[in-house]
Design goal:
Blueprint (H helix, E strand, L loop, with lengths): L1 E10 L4 H11 L3 E10 L2 E10 L4 H9 L4 E7 L10 E9 L4 H11 L3 E11 L6 E10 L6 H9 L6 E5 L8
Amino acid sequence: MKHLVITVIGQDRPGLVGALSDTVYQHKGNWLGSSMSKLAGQFAGILQVDIPEESVKPLRQAMSKLDGLNVHIAEDTNITAPPAQLQLLTVTGNDRSGIVKEVTTRLGELGINIHKLKTDTHSAPNWGYPIFTAWFELEIPAEVAVSTVQQQLESLADDLTIDFEEPESSEAH
């Protein structure tokens, strides 16, 4: 079996996920995991499948014919066990340019891998300005203390709130 990671993007419409899942199924693939979203009218997704080696080329051809979707398929050559120290991080602050850049730069400097990231901006009732929130699922090396990460992130700006929690399961926000 081959492990493939497939990314797709295109104009959102009903039936896209069905077309993807049918194409995987028709090529004897097993859908292992995925993350899919609609953002600004676009559908974007990433999925991981197991597929018989002889079905890889026909799957690539079939995926390239899916109407209106840009598809990229890569072989997953780095199948590993889940990281030992998985942490959920929520960053909240007044919306401004550069928050994601500052936080991800600092995480990179600490050798922390970002497993998942979701962001949102929403209005804050009675405050008059937008609030930015980012939810991270992080792979923190064993030699890096969570308290050190929190301290480093809090030093970025006075208006950022940094909250860590233990993941309850493999699903992040």
